[in-house]
Amino acid sequence: MSILKLFGISGGDRDEASDPAQTETVRKIVAELDHLPPQRARFVAAFAYILSRVAHADTNISDDETRAMERVLVERGHLPEQQAVIVVQMAKTQNLLLGGTENYIVTREYNRLASHDEKLALLECLFAVSAADQSVSTIEANVIRQIADELKLEHREYVEVRSKFRDHLAVLKPPRPEQD
Hints:
Number of helices: 8
Distance between the termini: 54 Å
Oligomer: single chain
Structural class: mainly alpha
Helix content: 55-70%
CATH superfamily: TerB-like
Radius of gyration: 17 Å
């Protein structure tokens, strides 16, 4: 099944077997959420995937970032904790396996599903996950900026949300002394 079909987007006349957008990325997460209405399940799956996209930006998803993603899904996604743990693990795994090829497609779908306020809330959640280890690296901030662009958010909105995490921005911290 193609990710476009999973998200309810018509693939046109293309043969599904030759569709380069085919993926398991969100289908596995949606299966875990099958008790939710399909559109809500797609929304939560995309939300979790995008969180993992930022957590993996520096090629390492720390335990603190994992717990932050779980907490965000419980608090903002209104999922039971056990389900949030499973969804986060699935999103992390799918991001590790297919991240580069699926990032834009999943974010574009979230853009279609989410209201402007939900996009801004996601942006804040992305910074919160990145700051879970007390530092938002430059690469994490750049990925968040890219996601903000993909969500069609204005630069000033990105800056406003980023300013809430100013104390965690690695670029604004003094350099660490070099060790011998």
